[in-house]
Amino acid sequence: MENEENNKQRKIIHIDMDAFYASVEQRDNPEYRGKAIVVGGSPEGRGGVVATASYEARKFGIRSAMPSKRAQQLCPDVIFIRPRFDAYKESSRKIREIFSRYTDLIEPLSLDEAFLDVTVDKLQIGSAIEIARQIKQAIKDELQLTASAGVSINKFVAKIASDLNKPDGLTFIGPSSIEEFMEKLPVEKFFGVGRVTADKMKKMGLHTGADLKKLSENDLRQHFGKAGGFYYKIVRGIDNREVQPHRETKSLGAEDTFAYDLTTIEEMNPELDKIARTVHERLLKYGLKGRTITLKIKYSDFRQITRNQSFPYPVNALDIITKTAKQLLLATYPEDKKIRLLGISLSNFNEIIQTEKPNNQLSLFDE
After folding, report:
1. Strand locations in 94-133, DSSP E?
2. Alpha-carbon torsion (31, 37, 39, 44), positive or negative
3. Domain that holds residue 133
4. 3-class DSSP state of 83
5. Containing H/E element for 278?
6. Does 273 belong to an annotated binding site?
7. What percent of the chain has pLDDT above 70?
8. Where does this protein hold Mg(2+) (predicted)?
9. Per-residue pLDDT at 192
10. 112 a known binding residue?
11. Catalytic residue among 25, 56, 107, 113
């Protein structure tokens, strides 16, 4: 109970920039303002995926991680823009300077979002809501950008809150409201719940936090392993993770557990294509390139192996990631073996831009 009490005393803010890359482009290039633009991908939808879409583009249904070809089908007049990471990094640096006026406990998740612990703030304002309001205003006044903020007593709820009233939102979820809020939350919004796990939960009749809450911790652990213990706590509003500045990213990747075991290359290659796209999208968001590509394989008997290939130069190109992963897979002679999970990751980064690797699946791109 002592940890839970300490947790309830925290004041946590999650700041998430609104369509960050696209907003920087519209700020710096007046000709893009008010228009449907996409950062990333290729003109005329020849390849790649959307890293960020402006809010004007989102009205047509264009979303982050969508193939460029699909984006152009939805909006033939959409403008594709090559990312300018130097500009995004510079804006991100200035945003963090604003954060540091209020606290040194800053945990960046990427160029465009961060957690702040303002339990004790430098300016002795006392109110996390007021601090969030001031930060948002400073970003708007000094950088001509907008941010959304979530305020609560722990990281998980603050992050969810920041997404509720985008763009330019400020949402507070207080201690007395958390359990009711968590009960209404769809299971796919929970930390660590990807598509396969969400499908499994729904087949079990678990659609919301309220449904998860009906199961004991042992039941959840039995069905979902260690993550089940986290679900048990978080649905009750308990998240004791501290805001942790200065943690260095060692690797970045993605993986998927399949609804049924894969036994042929024809089944495995499309799954690797999807996983590689996710990895590529995350690398773009975090501005990272790595020299080592690692393939992870878990078999139906839960035996697990990894295979990797290192390059003399840092890479983040989708075709290189995909081709390398498929070559590593072939080298394991996978035909007729039952594979339940595949994963791809990159490591040995040449430049660490953010100081924390993504620790959840709530947002892969700017929202």
Report:
1. 106-110, 113-117
2. negative
3. 2-19+86-174
4. coil
5. helix 265-286
6. no
7. 90
8. 16, 112
9. 67
10. yes
11. 113
